[in-house]
Amino acid sequence: MLLVLCVDLDDDLGRKTGVKTPVIGREAVRDAAVALATVDPEDSDTNVLFQGIHTHDELQTAGEAVEVAAVTGVDGSDVQANRAVGEEVDRVLAELATGEEVSAIVITDGAQDESVLPVIRSRMPIDGVRRVVVRQAQDLESLYYTIKQVLADRETRGTILVPLGILLLIYPLVVVANLFDLAGAAVLGVISGLVGLYSLFRGLGLEESVDRAADAARNLLYAGRVTLITYVVALALIVVGGVQGLETLEGVQTVEGDAIPVGTAIAAFVHGFVQWLAVAGVTSSLGQITDEYLAGRFRWRYLNAPFYVVAIAVVLYAVSGFFLPEAPGVTALGLNDLALALAVGTLIGVLSTLTFAVAESQVPSIDPTEPS
Questions:
Q1: How far is Cα 232 from Cα 282, in angstroms, rounded to an integer?
Q2: Are 367 and 296 within 8 A, CB to CB?
Q3: Cα–Cα distance measured from residue 236 to residue 284, given in angstroms and rounded to the nearest whole number
Q4: What is the β-pairing status of strands 126-131 and 103-108?
Q5: E strand or H helix at 191
Q6: How far apart are CA 135 and CA 349, in angstroms?
Q7: What's phi and psi for 262, nearest 5 deg?
Q8: Do 130 and 108 touch, CB atoms closer than 8 A?
Q9: Going by DSSP bridges, is the β-strand pair 23-24/126-131 parallel, antiparallel, or unpaired?
Q10: Angle (nearest 5°) at CA 115 between 110 and 118
Q11: N or C: which end of the chain has fewer CB within 10 A?
């Protein structure tokens, strides 16, 4: 059996005429169409109802077992409207219980109403879809619905309208800049740069990474994490270390002359930088260990981190000093001093590893959340 199903997604029929839906049967659908045409002759749903009657008559003349019905949604969100249409389709099928399989020919007045097709298809097969609009308005209606869907989507709206809005502001901002004796070209360059950065930002999908970083920073701040402070301190120490490394490099250049080998320049920078880097590493690792302890995840082996940092710093400081001449800020080391420093760095790393491995095997890990 074929069911010619007229769909009015925003319930113009019920709201404007008071007709109870679903409407089932040719005569009932015709009366509903006349009532809607009388109240609002310009409503496109009137065409849908009359097209449904016309399609019903054609199929009946061809010898098909056919019935016509009209279902409506609600004047609200598409989800609510689709659910309402689904409920009315269920009621129509219940009243048409003939023991035969029912398939539908759906009549709509545009692309928006066709969003309900998956709901109908979940209840019965769809043999065809007929969109009925006034011929000269078909393209306009489709364009209107497309624009409406684009503006309703938050992501698409931000991607399209924000750059468009910035571009439209370029000319008035340049005019305002000229009024205040500012360089219009500079303003244009700044705006163009902002548009370019925004396009790269959106194109590379960096908004998700930035959102995750902001959430992580917010969680650290609200949770009272010690690492938030120690990381800031470590960053400041690294900046100071970079300045110290450059000063050491300048001191070596004063002694050796401007044309120094690349290896010597790298050794000079490392020699001045590594001390501050070690302090930054110890600071950040102690903050991380403190947070792990407060969170109940402390393990003895975590204490290896600051010792490893010190051991690596001792080795780098000694190796870089071995290749440098006597200069301001440089501790020049001989071969014996280098061997001693390497031994000390190795011992620090090995002894810390053995000590905390034994401690972890003999002493339970500390969990401040457990009752003493």
A1: 13
A2: yes
A3: 11
A4: parallel
A5: helix 184-203
A6: 83
A7: -60, -40
A8: yes
A9: unpaired
A10: 135
A11: C
Considering Cα of 214, then 215, then 216, then 220, what sign does the dihedral take?
positive
Quick one: pLDDT at residue 40? 87
Task: Please name which of 85, 80, 54, 69 lies closest in space to residue 24, comparing C-alpha atoms.
Answer: 69
Q: Would you state the structure tokens that stand for residue 231, as one six-digit string? A: 């990381």
- Report CA torsion sign: 14, 20, 24, 28: negative
Structure tokens at 138: 């078909």
What value, to the nearest 5°, has the Cα angle with vertex 106 and ends 100 and 111?
155
**What distance in Å separates the CA atoms of residue 360 and residue 307, rounded to the nearest whole number?**
16
| Phi, psi (rounded to 5 degrees) for 297 | -115, 20
**What span, in angstroms and rounded, lies between the C-alpha atoms of 101 and 28?**
23
- Sign, CA dihedral 314-318-319-320, equals positive
**Domain spans, the chain:** 2-143, 154-204, 221-362
Give tens-digit pLDDT for 94-142: 888 777 888 999 998 876 777 888 999 999 999 988 888 665 455 555 6
Strand partners, 128: 105
Both structure tokens of 158: 């931000």
- Structure tokens belonging to residue 308: 């490893």
Spatial separation of the C-alpha atoms in residues 299 and 361, rounded to whole Å? 11
Chain position carrying tokens 């048409």: 96
With contact defined as beta carbons under 8 Å apart, do 6 and 92 qualify?
Answer: no
Those residues whose C-beta lies under 8 Å from the C-beta of residue 269, and which sit 6 or more positions away, are 245, 246, 248, 249
Residues 304-330 pLDDT 10s:
889 999 999 999 999 988 888 888 778
Residue whose pair of structure tokens reads 């009946």 in the numeric block: 60
- Sheet harboring 23-24: ordered strands across? 23-24, 66-72, 2-8, 103-108, 126-131
Q: Is residue 268 a contact partner of residue 248, using CB atoms and an 8 Å limit?
A: yes
The whole-model pTM stands at 0.44
C-alpha to C-alpha distance for 215 and 254, rounded to whole angstroms: 48
Cα distance between residue 12 and residue 309, in whole Å: 74
What is the 8-class DSSP label of residue 366?
A: P
52 vs 50: CA distance, rounded Å: 5
**Max Cα–Cα distance, the chain, nearest Å:** 110
